[in-house]
């Protein structure tokens, strides 16, 4: 993507009328933001303060054509930069998002020019109280080799789209269609964070001009709004979108500003805003082999892509009915000013791209008002037992397991959530502690191989895998010690683990139909056996 330089800054550079400096911003895994500049003075830019860090240096930027990864390093001193050795060793900077921009320190109001962005690679703490960080551009993703292997154990992760165990299903959306078997979460706690609907235009594709959905820009192939593609009919309203007849692919996009929704830029730049996303995905035309993808990207003030908020990946929907896709707590990167929504698909076989989209809903949350957390959901998820469209105003949901709630034309039944809220009651050491958790299913070893994720205390934003759980005492043992101090009262989210064995999939999760392993394929021991002489 070509770089955009604001006209005022470009004129100053061309006239040699401005000195230049760089500003560097890191969004860590725990959503804390570090802002540095190599200028000799602090620079206030767009309501954000970039601190002049003594000893902060960067290498020359090496940009390559094609898919080779651009190379860059930065270095600095701990005290001056705000980066600490403890944070590095806690891996808070592993995979952290960064952006590096050019600015005039004499007149920061001229704007900034983005030089590069991506994720941090290796970050090393040096003996002289300094650090060195490797910066990897977004092209680093193309170096990842993706393969699928088979074996005795299940090959997918608990809670993934292939597994379908609803660890953290999307929040129920208003005026949206649901089908039987879909799971949602319902914010029932009084301290729910401020939720603001993002004004997606024509989200159900009801406004159509000459078969084209209004307010969406066609960016690839040919799209068409249709009333049905047997046996699939629209999830909500009278139209859905898919590829036009004969099209081998299609793509549409819409860019939606979030600057006028009542959440300040400063709050967004603190990485304290999350987004809820819901979209319907289906396949018509007797389930032809077509791959569909829903993508949400974050854009800065210059409409440059600065991060991916949600990506379903290209997938083939096998069922002949609509499937819900989305996220509940996707994070919006700092500097985000708008969201880019994209529906795209490509054909593998058949006469058209029959991958279909409908009923898109997006909302953002101001987490400074009240942080998103498991207590918000009251340890409940809700399964749709009667298909229909939810009401425009949320009803009060019955939290009793097994009881139903009518929400508009849809009915939902309360069920136990897999992810539970917990509180640390006593601490033995940095690996062993006891928790109070409410879950009647939590027998010995229930949380083994799951993850305990801290929501408060010194370890907020961090999590580690659980090695052992004792139900009678609530004792948790982690595989590795937490580096930061654990104290009684820390709040956690914790979910059970899966060792990926068929027996556990059957007895613990009742999910054998989604098991992705091959337990009956003979292994090496079978191959090396002597022939039976009988």
Written overview of the protein:
- This protein is mainly β and 534 residues long.
- The chain folds into four domains: 7-143, Thrombin, subunit H (Beta Barrel), CATH 2.40.10; 168-189 and 376-417, no CATH class; 193-369, Galactose-binding domain-like (Jelly Rolls), CATH 2.60.120.260; 420-495, Thrombin, subunit H.
- It is built from six helices and 34 strands.
- A hairpin with a 2-residue loop joins strand 13 (208-209) and strand 14 (212-213).
- The radius of gyration is 25 Å and the shape is globular.
- The N and C termini lie far apart (70 Å).
- Mean pLDDT is 82; it is low at 370-375.
Subunit organisation of the chains: single chain
CATH topology of the largest domain: Jelly Rolls
Return the CATH class of the largest domain: Mainly Beta
Number of helices: 6
- Largest sheet composition: 9 strands, mixed
Give the neighbour order of strands across the main sheet.
3-4-2-1-7-8-9-6-5
Number of strands: 34
Strand content: 35-45%
**Content-based structural category:** mainly beta
Architecture of the largest domain in CATH? Answer: Sandwich
**Structural Rg:** 25 Å
* Total discrete domains: 4
């Amino acid at each position: 993507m070509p770089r955009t330089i604001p006209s005022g800054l470009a004129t100053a550079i061309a006239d040699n009328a401005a000195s230049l400096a760089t500003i560097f911003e890191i969004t860590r895994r725990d959503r804390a933001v570090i802002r540095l500049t190599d200028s000799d003075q602090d620079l206030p830019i767009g309501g954000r303060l970039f601190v002049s860090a003594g000893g902060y240096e960067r290498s020359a930027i090496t940009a390559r054509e094609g898919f080779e990864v651009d190379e860059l390093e930065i270095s600095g001193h701990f005290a001056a930069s705000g980066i600490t050795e403890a944070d590095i060793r806690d891996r808070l900077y592993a995979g952290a998002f960064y952006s590096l921009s050019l600015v005039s320190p004499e007149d920061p109001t001229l704007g900034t020019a983005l030089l590069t962005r991506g994720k941090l690679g290796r970050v090393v703490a040096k003996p002289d109280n300094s650090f060195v960080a490797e910066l990897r551009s977004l092209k680093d993703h193309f170096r990842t080799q993706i393969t699928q292997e088979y074996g005795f154990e299940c090959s997918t992760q608990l809670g993934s789209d292939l597994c379908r165990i609803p660890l953290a299903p999307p929040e129920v959306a208003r005026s949206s269609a649901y089908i039987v078997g879909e799971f949602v979460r319902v914010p029932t706690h009084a301290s729910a964070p401020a939720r603001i609907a993002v004004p997606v235009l024509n989200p159900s594709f009801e406004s159509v001009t000459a078969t084209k959905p209004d307010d969406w820009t066609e960016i690839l192939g040919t799209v068409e709004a249709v009333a049905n593609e047997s046996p699939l009919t629209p999830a909500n309203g009278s139209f859905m979108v898919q590829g036009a007849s004969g099209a081998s692919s299609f793509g549409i996009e819409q860019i939606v500003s979030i600057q006028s929704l009542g959440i300040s830029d400063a709050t967004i730049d603190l990485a304290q805003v999350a987004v809820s996303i819901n979209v319907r995905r289906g396949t018509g035309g007797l389930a032809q082999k077509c791959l569909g993808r829903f993508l949400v990207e974050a854009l800065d003030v210059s409409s440059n892509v600065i991060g991916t908020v949600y990506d379903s990946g290209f997938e083939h929907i096998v069922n002949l009915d609509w499937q819900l896709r989305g996220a509940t707590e996707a994070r919006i990167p700092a500097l985000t000013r708008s969201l880019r929504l994209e529906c795209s698909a490509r054909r593998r076989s058949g006469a058209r791209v029959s991958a279909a989209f409908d009923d898109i809903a997006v909302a953002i949350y101001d987490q400074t008002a009240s942080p998103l957390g498991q207590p918000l959901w009251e340890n409940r998820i809700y399964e749709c037992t009667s298909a229909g469209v939810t009401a425009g105003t949320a009803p009060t949901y019955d939290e009793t397991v097994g009881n139903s709630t009518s929400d508009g034309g849809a009915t939902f039944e309360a069920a136990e959530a897999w992810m539970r809220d917990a509180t640390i009651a006593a601490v033995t050491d940095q690996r062993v502690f006891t928790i109070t958790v409410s879950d009647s299913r939590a027998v010995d070893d229930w949380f083994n191989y799951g993850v305990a994720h801290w929501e408060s205390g010194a370890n907020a934003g961090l999590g580690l895998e659980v090695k052992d759980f004792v139900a009678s005492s609530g004792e948790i043992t982690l595989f590795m010690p937490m580096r930061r101090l654990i104290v009684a009262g820390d709040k956690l989210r914790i979910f059970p683990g899966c060792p990926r064995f068929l027996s556990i999939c059957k007895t613990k999760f009742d999910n054998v139909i989604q098991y992705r392993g091959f337990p009956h394929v003979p292994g090496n021991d079978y191959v090396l056996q002597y022939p039976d002489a009988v």
